[in-house]
Amino acid sequence: MSLGSLQPAADSLAEFGWTEAKLSDADYDFLCQLIYERSRIHLGADKRVLVASRLAKRLRQLNLKDYREYCQLLRTAAGAEELPFLIDRISTNHTHFFRELKHFEFISQTIIPAWNAVKRRAEPFRIWSAASSTGEEPYSLAIHLAEQFAPAESGRWQIEATDISTRVLDVARQAIYDQERLAGISPDQLRRHFQKGEKKWAGQFRVKAELRQRVIFQHLNLLGGTYPFTQLFDLILCRNVMIYFDRPTQETLVRQLSAQLVPGGYLLVGHSESLSGVKHALKLIQPAIYRKTAP
Ligand SMILES: C[S@@+](CC[C@H](N)C(=O)[O-])C[C@H]1O[C@@H](n2cnc3c(N)ncnc32)[C@H](O)[C@@H]1O
């Protein structure tokens, strides 16, 4: 997947009265440079229309005349406050429940049995959903683990979920999804793990409180340097985010993620995000599944 796979919203362009001339080369270069510095998202020349489209609504919200004014704002002290909105508009948050189902099968068939074999100790099974977007990934994990562990063992697993976008984190914490977003959920899972909305909430479902409480969301830029965790993870999912980063950034990120894994822990990446060509010390187990070997 690339940013280019998303079409610019024709409506937002027309609504804004946008023409390509308004986003000058100089302003586009400035935005690309800033976005790269702050998020390591690399935008090529072909993404100009897309970027203009994604920012059009933001300009209207801020009452700005054109992209030049927007770039000027980003150069001022107030720009620091605007930056998260800029990154949020540019990064793609698309996700869905039980995305890349093979990973979930691998978790139940291989990872948990291996963990059970060596680790039936006091520590819980710890998972990190490292670019969790609107919550579908960590809640899918929570549903899956609730089905793998007996109810009496519910304290034996923990999920941390992080994202750079505060907007998607707010959605994730709310955990309310339209019915059409629940295509990956079986009727039985829906009954057991979701609360059906009524009256003004009709057509929507909320993840039940007992599952919501099992997922801890926090804001984190994966490329921001340090991570806030005090314990290592048995499993990290960093899926469909590395695709935005260039090779050196991917290498740094994989090294930092590996350092957060216990020996024998697993890293799952998106199926379109092979680490071939990226230097790392993990063992490839299956496509998009890597393992940290014991020292
Ligand atoms: C396409 S979604 C992937 C969601 C989920 N992992 C999946 O595979 O369905 C990519 C997410 O990565 C987040 N993201 C982009 N850059 C990031 C960064 N530097 N640190 C943390 N999250 C980032 C975006 O905000 C977005 O929510």
Main attributes of the structure:
single chain; 295 residues; alpha/beta; Chemotaxis Receptor Methyltransferase Cher, domain 1; Rossmann fold; 2 domains; seven-stranded mixed sheet; three-stranded antiparallel sheet; 11 helices; disordered N terminus; binds S-adenosylmethionine
Care to describe what's here?
By secondary structure, the chain is α/β, with parallel strands linked by helices. The protein folds into two domains: 3-90, Chemotaxis receptor methyltransferase CheR, N-terminal domain (Chemotaxis Receptor Methyltransferase Cher, domain 1), CATH 1.10.155; 101-291, Vaccinia Virus protein VP39 (Rossmann fold, 3-Layer(aba) Sandwich), CATH 3.40.50.150. It has eleven helices and ten strands. The chain has helices at 10-16, 25-39, 48-61, 67-75, 79-90, 101-119, 136-148, 166-174, 187-193, 209-212, 247-259, and strands spanning 125-129, 157-163, 176-178, 194-196, 204-207, 215-219, 233-238, 261-269, 283-286, 289-291. The strands form two sheets. Strands 6-2-1-7-8-10-9 form a seven-stranded mixed sheet. The protein is globular. The chain starts with 9 loop residues before the first helix and ends with a strand. Bound molecules: S-adenosylmethionine. S-adenosylmethionine (SAM) binds next to loops.
